[in-house]
Structure formats: structure tokens, C-alpha cells
Amino acid sequence: MHIAEGFLPVTHAVGWTLAAAPFVVHGARQVVTEVRERPENTLLLGAAGAFTFVLSAVKLPSFTGSSSHPTGTGAGAVLFRPPVMALLGTIVLLFQALLLAHGGLTTLGANAFAMAVVGPWAGYGAYRLVRRLGGGLLPGVFAAMAVADLATYVTTAGQLALALPDAETGVPGALVKFLSVFALTQVPLAVGEGLLGVLLFRALTVNARPELERLGLLAAAPEPTR
Amino acid sequence: MTRSRLGTALLVLGVLALIALPLVLDGGTSEFAGTDATAAELAEEQGAQPWFESVFSPSSAEVESGLFALQAALGGGVLGYVLGRLRGRRLAERSREDGGS
């Protein structure tokens, strides 16, 4: 989902930066508030950031004969709501733009909008939907991880299509082309990411039950289970 | 093996299968190029004209893979630290309760 450095026209680069900036600033405020008012959650906040850091560094093969990387933003979106991930996801993207020549500074806005804004919000929406339909925490987490991953890549395809419409078929034609690169490859990765999220939250429900209860993810148990 | 352990093992197996099966089923015909690079090529075909270069580019694939490994190691390290601390806390609480009762 990383649009390479310099690949977006200046107007698009500026536009996406302006679109992403308020989310990132708001996210930064949320992180500061979280750490200040609920310092007991700092550990989990670190886990959410670390999870994105690992997952977005690992490129995995897919059934389409190409490889891609997960995003890992769904976990933090479920734990701390999406704004927090706007900052954490952007930090990951900045690290990769500066040190890995992966993504870029001119495309940071667009990439942040896809991975740190749309992904977490879509994932959080999926989580809420599953919970409202009566699903438990783990099915909700699975949906959040998978949907955040897929939504990020679909957004990237859309951004590229808007910037580079096809000569004959326009934006829709270009969208089909870019989606054919990203979407199918990403499906098995999104499932794998969902399973990893479930693994993480299984560990958290056992070891961080008080935190998950305080965050409203689990109903408070009368007596802690042994 | 408890049910919980079995579940964990199955989940890990599922993740591994999702990574390994594409490689096994493919039989060496595909190059598994990254989608980001493929999209950049497609963008250039569509007429993209890169107007800005990366401020820093790893000078070789080896350096690049090292930096990616560093990113994963940082994330994995922090994640492991947090999970380890949380688990240690729970075990300490449990032994305290057991000692007290």
C-alpha cells in the first residue's frame, strides 16, 4: 500500500497531506491524553504500536504469485479506537519513508490516509458491527484486522487511480487495474492478519483482563478466572 | 493438551499454512514480486512522472533487508516485552493470592 516517493502529482500529494493531517494531530492528542490520564494503559498502547511495526515490516507471499505486507492497524483501533492509530500508523510510515525508501515524504499524506486513517476506521467499524450482531471479542478482532488490512489497500488503489486515470477508460478503468494488483493478493494476507490478531487478543484476555475490562472490550467478570 | 493450547496451536498452524501454501502450490513459477513495486511499475505505465527522490535509499538489497529486519525486531521486541510483563504480573498476582489464602 506504499505509494512510492514522488509518484503522486503535487496537487494530490498536498491534498492527501491536508486530508490526513487533522487525523494525525487529533491522534497525537489522543495518545498524549491516554498516557497522561490512564498511564496503566501505556503498556498496551506500546503493544498496539509494536504490532503495526512488526506486521508492516514483513512481506508475505500470497496465492496470486506476488507478495505483500499486512498493516496490523486493526488491533490498536479495537483497543484504543481509531484516532490513536492515526499517529502510530503514521510513525511507521515515516520510519519506512526515511530509512527504507519505502513509501515517501511526498506520499506520506496519502499513505497515512490509507493505512492510518481509513484502515483503522474501517476495521473499527467492522469490529463494532460484529459485536452488535452478538459476536464475541475474538470474532470482532478478526473482522477488524482483516477489514483494516483490505480497506487500506483498496484506498491505495483508489488514490492511484484518481491520480493516474486511464487514457481510455478514465478513473474507473485505472481503479480496476490497480485493484487487480492489490486486492486479490491481499485477501489471504488479511485472513492471516485476522488470525494473528486473534492470537494477540487471546494472550491479552488471559494476561491483561483488567485493562480489557476497563477499555470496555470485555464484560467485568465477578471472579477472575484461573 | 488443554483446549486453549489446542486453539493456539491451530491458529499458529493456520497462519503458517497461509504463508507456506502459496510457495508450495506455486512450484517455483512466480517471482512473488511485491505489490507495492508492481503498482509503481503500473503507475509509470499509466504516465506517472516521479518528481521527488527518496531522501535516503538503502544502498543495496542487503542493507534494505537489514533495515526491514530492524523494524520487525523493534516491533517484536516491544511486543514481547509487553506480553512478558503482563504475564509476569498475572503470575505474581496469582501466587500472591495463593500465598494469602
From TrEMBL, chain A:
InterPro entries: CbiM, CbiM/NikMN. GO terms for molecular function: cobalt ion transmembrane transporter activity. Pathway: Cofactor biosynthesis; adenosylcobalamin biosynthesis. One of its GO terms (cellular component) is ATP-binding cassette (ABC) transporter complex. It is found in: Cell inner membrane; Cell membrane. Its main location: membrane. It is a multi-pass membrane protein. One of its GO terms (biological process) is cobalamin biosynthetic process. It holds the Pfam family CbiM. Forms an energy-coupling factor (ECF) transporter complex composed of an ATP-binding protein (A component, CbiO), a transmembrane protein (T component, CbiQ) and 2 possible substrate-capture proteins (S components, CbiM and CbiN) of unknown stoichimetry. Part of the energy-coupling factor (ECF) transporter complex CbiMNOQ involved in cobalt import. HAMAP family: CbiM. Belongs to the CbiM family. This is Cobalt transport protein CbiM.
UniProtKB/TrEMBL annotation, chain B:
Belongs to the CbiN family. It comes from Geodermatophilus poikilotrophus. It is found in: Cell membrane. Forms an energy-coupling factor (ECF) transporter complex composed of an ATP-binding protein (A component, CbiO), a transmembrane protein (T component, CbiQ) and 2 possible substrate-capture proteins (S components, CbiM and CbiN) of unknown stoichimetry. Part of the energy-coupling factor (ECF) transporter complex CbiMNOQ involved in cobalt import. Pathway: Cofactor biosynthesis; adenosylcobalamin biosynthesis. InterPro entries: CbiN. It is a multi-pass membrane protein. PANTHER family: COBALT TRANSPORT PROTEIN CBIN (PTHR38662:SF1). Its main location: membrane. GO terms for cellular component: plasma membrane. This is Cobalt transport protein CbiN. Coiled coil: none annotated. GO terms for biological process: cobalamin biosynthetic process. The chain crosses the membrane at residues 67-86. One of its GO terms (molecular function) is cobalt ion transmembrane transporter activity.
